[in-house]
Amino acid sequence: MGAYILRRILLIIPTLLGIMIINFVLVQFVPGGPIEQIIAQIEGQGDVFGGFAGGSDSPDAGSMTPGDETYAGARGLPPEYIADLERQFGFDKPPLERFLNMMWNYIRLDFGESYFRSIGVIDLVLEKMPVSISLGLWSTLLAYLISIPLGIRKAVRDGTSFDTWTSSIIIVAYAIPGFLFAILLLVLFAGGSYWQIFPIRGLVSDNWEDLNIFMKVADYFWHIALPITASTISAFATLTLLTKNSFLDEIKKHYVMTARAKGLSEDRVLYGHVFRNAMLIVIAGLPGVFIGVFFGGSIIIETIFSLDGLGRLGFEAAVARDYPVIFGTLFITSMIGLVVGLISDLMYVVVDPRIDFEKREG
What we know:
It is a multi-pass membrane protein. Belongs to the binding-protein-dependent transport system permease family. It is found in: Cell inner membrane; Cell membrane. InterPro entries: MetI-like, MetI-like_sf. The protein is mainly alpha-helical. The chain has 2 domains: 31-90, no CATH class; 121-361, MetI-like (MetI-like fold). 70% of the residues lie in helices and 0% in strands. The chain contains 17 helices and no strands. The protein has helices at residues 2-28, 34-42, 48-52, 79-89, 95-107, 121-156, 161-175, 178-189, 213-251, 254-261, 266-278, 280-284, 286-295, 299-304, 310-320, 323-351, 357-361. Residues 48-69 have low confidence and may be disordered.
């Protein structure tokens, strides 16, 4: 097992490098870099996209001919000012040198500072992380607590009326987009048109620091109740059907019939024999599910509930072309995702020690 883990760890290096190279190359072809953003604000366009859309009165403002060193919309600015901006952002160096410098800094865990927020990337990520942890942790936990018992019950009562009507609810839940369900929750329970039960802004109340420990916990869950419900809806449906199908596959196998023939009770057969094998794929995928919800949180849900998490951070960084934030968070999330992939494989061994990846590879 040690050799397998070592190979997987060594594989992380070229995989991570490939991810960074591909994204760095793609960014070079995307118009509207940070210098263009600053120039657009100086020219009064608001952002660089106004220039590309032809929003400027100048005929040359939205274009740059091949070989022209002038940025789009920058013809009225002194060349010395543009050169100074390039030095500040590091764009006076060729792309290969910029990439190598960036990766060398990342290896040393130096992720730089945001171009437009005057704050380190790590500090910025840590600032947004409580929201993402809240959504990821509680959404995953809630999905598993509901889906596993429900999926087992549906497998045991397969074909009954219980299985039929719960399947109908699951299909409807899966078909509803998370953001649409979030709006529905706002309308019903956050003062939209009916009841004002839950707040619609922030992770905690303004007076949270003045509350005692019990009130703080209550206030925290009061604020995240609706966002978690909205972000759990689709994961709950998928996980329930996965659990049901896994149990149905195991229940039909010969070892289950043998256990029943020995006179074991149905609960002993179900939870003593079937459960470990059926839950292998469900439990082993727990780290991946959590990380998926944690880093892939819905930007729309965060926006609807006024939550400032990593989802909104990534979107705003992409719009503003804040390259340190874009590449810093990409490096961190890719690294964590690759490590979690290894942890997911190890979870298979924890759940079922009979699995040996080294023999499978051999």
